[in-house]
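pasting for ref
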Amino acid sequence: MAEAAFHEKLISLRVEHEASLAQLMARKNSEAEAWQQTAETKRAEMAASVDRLEQQLAVASAAAEQAKKQANDKVCQFYLNYFAISLIMGCCLVRKSCDHLITR
């Protein structure tokens, strides 16, 4: 009789233990799911942030390229103007120096 009561008590302890373990596992699984959802949300936010930064980089790069092109164009225009003025001034100087030959 005592042995039967012992086995009955052992069975009830196992059932209680399994129920407690099932509760613990359910709680831990729900915590893991919450962490997984949080991680997925953060990953999506990071991906969106990377996309925005890549877009900003592309815009900034295009703006820098445009500024570089404009600067090069201005330098070329400056040299063309300088060359044209030098050519005109040179012709005037040559003409003045040749005027004495023409007037004679």
